[in-house]
Amino acid sequence: MSDIAKIHYLPARIEGLRDLALNLWWRWDRDARTLLRVIDPALWSATRHNPVALLKQTEPARLAFLSENEEFLAGYDQVMTSFHAARETGGRWFGEAFPDLGERPVAYFCAEFGLHNSIPIYSGGLGVLAGDHCKSASDLGIPFVGVGLLYSRGYFDQRVNLDGWQENAAVEFDHANMPLERLAGPDGSYRLTTLRCGGRDVSIGAWRLLAGSTRLCLLDTDLEENHPDDRELTYTLYGGGGEYRLKQEWLLGVGGVRILRNLGVDPGAWHANEGHASFMMVERVREAVAAGTPLGEAVAQVRARTIFTTHTPVPAGHDVFSPDLMQAVCGDYHEGLGIDEPSFRAIGAHAGDTSGAFHMTGAAIRLARHVNGVSRLHGDVSQEIWKGMWPGREASHVPIGSVTNGVHLGSWMSHHFMGCLDQAFGPRWESVLQEPDAWDRVEDLSDEDVWRIHGRLKTALLAFCREQARRRWTVLGREASHLVGAGIFLSPEPLTIGFARRFATYKRGDLLFRDEERLRLLLTHSSRPVQLVFAGKAHPADDEGKRVLQRVWHATRDPRFAGRVAFVEDYDLHVAHRLVQGVDVWLNLPRVPKEASGTSGMKAALNGVPQISTVDGWWAEGFAGDNGWALPLVDGSPEEVDAADHRAVFEILEREVVPMYYERDRDGVPREWVRWMKQSIIVAGRFFTTGRMVRDYANRYYAPALRGERDGDDPPIMPEFVAEPVGRPVG
Ligand SMILES: *Cc1c(COP(=O)(O)O)cnc(C)c1O
Questions:
Q1: Cα(629) to centroid(ligand 1), Å
Q2: Based on the structure, what is the number of domains in the chain?
Q3: Which terminus of the chain has fewer CB atoms gathered within 10 Å of its CB, N or C?
Q4: Ligand 1 centroid, distance to 499 Cα (angstroms)
Q5: Are residues 123 and 76 both part of a single domain?
Q6: Whole-number Å distance between alpha carbons of 149 and 221
Q7: Of 476, 655, 652, 488, the residue nearest 562 (C-alpha)
Q8: In angstroms, what is the span from residue 602 Cα to ligand 1's centroid?
Q9: If you write DSSP's letter for every residue of 509-546 in order, what string do you get?
Q10: Is the pTM of this model over 0.85?
Q11: Residue 240 is part of a domain; what is its CATH number?
Q12: Tell me: the pLDDT tens digits for 505-552?
């Protein structure tokens, strides 16, 4: 399947559109996006902003017309010039900061990547963060290769039945409408490497996905020569049980390293984003041992070039595999390391667990010199959780750092706001943003402009909700009663609160419903009404989470709430963009300290949407007093904490948020509210973008890893057979 052939016809003068459509760079370049949209605005919207589908479906006559239209061609030529620069080398920052380190790329392994809604190989925050990381690596000019799996049945599409119970529908996964290019070996075969997995040799192929100068390599086992069960290994993200999952992680880690070798990629630093990718480190140790390096030295070499980021303090987020499963899947792999099977598993031992199970996070902490959590608070919590690996040490001296997450500015800030910021930053944002106080210029924007842009985005969100409802009613044949809950009664005037995230119980999506009468009074106030818009999926195996969703769902159809509670089905990147840009306030209620970082509030803030949140994750750093509200921290049983947080959030809403929002001057502008909107943008822009985040990774971790530096090594407890030489600087 040659992807170049997917887009059949393009006039020669605008042939470059094909390459543009096949590189996700268009997604975060305003001019490229505008160029694609004007090709056919209605089709652009109908394809949910998918340029491959757009170019395939546009009438040839329209393309011919555009290829002779002066205005279109001027835009086209300008976009192609920036595109070529971005595609070849990305931005200039890394080259200027580290002129000696441009040779070898950073390899970035992750089980999911959320780059665009047309490529459903992500489930939520982790994947979206990984996608944003790849985009910023390109913007900063870091040589960067992403490695993941191509889940050809995706995650799942959400359907909520008449009783509010989430049912999972298969995703429409249409390779032909995705910017994917299948890689073939020199012999033309799709098999790029093989891996012993579960007692069989599994052939692995790969697809290339481009995001600016970043390349992603997505593994695929759906090859004809494979056993039917093995062909399914790359079907679904987080599907199946423990064995399926272990096989996927085995594939990602070991298979991923082998594929890179076969493609001739020679990374100088290796970053595992979450423990799913830990086997990548093990395989590199095996390679070194196979090349004759003693095991202890092999481990030291691998550690020096490895970065590991842990993403959750919730135990279920850390994979643990039993000895039986490990034996069944990994077979005699340990022989390549020159050790026996129990010793192999000891690489993933966890203090206090004597079962012989393999802890993916434990293995990663042993084999990575650079370990970090994703907010300051989460860094501290991770030190506490993993201190057992440095016996006798105080948590505060455990060498686990933190790099607070961010979001990709160009992907998440509405281009209407970016247009407005042009007034503050001029045409060359990149150089202005290097100045420490650049973001303060946002204060000088006109209140009227900021308020007007927000109004446009809010109207667009409501129109989007109605269109979704219409589509589900007509195309999917949903019952008319479903429409009430889908947001058709939402209107532009009321204060609109957004809450969108995975329905995990610790995120407390139903906290507002603890006192329905108080909520009803808030929502249906005659002059100062409030609306709630929810979205989010529950993990397919999480019935508790599904019950929370169900509670919200019932509220959307409860006449007492007068159509002021809506649930938008099928939360994905496309829905997320509209929500974070179009609501007035963002609500975030995780039980402290379960939310490692959280990122949706940052996306909202970049669009001038203040947040109400418990002081967890990024909000412990991001709350500045006039960019949102923080619930007071309380101690107590979960029930006591829920009750106190429920009281606090209502007090904040009733006494502060609602009055401020409705306080308008003669021009109808809520001046104080707009001031808070601007502060939200300033704080998020300055501290919570992946531009800042990836620069932190580069300065603190990638640079020393690319240099192979070992001094200052501070190793955790190692299995005896490798403990001895580790940590001694060699050479
Ligand atoms: C940003 C995002 C998330 C993560 O949001 P959190 O605040 O971390 O819960 C999940 N899903 C989608 C589609 C997103 O865009």
A1: 20
A2: 3
A3: C
A4: 10
A5: no
A6: 9
A7: 488
A8: 10
A9: TTGGGGSHHHHHHHHT-SSS-EEEEEE----TT-HHHH
A10: yes
A11: 3.40.50.2000
A12: 999 999 999 999 999 999 999 999 999 999 999 988 899 999 999 999
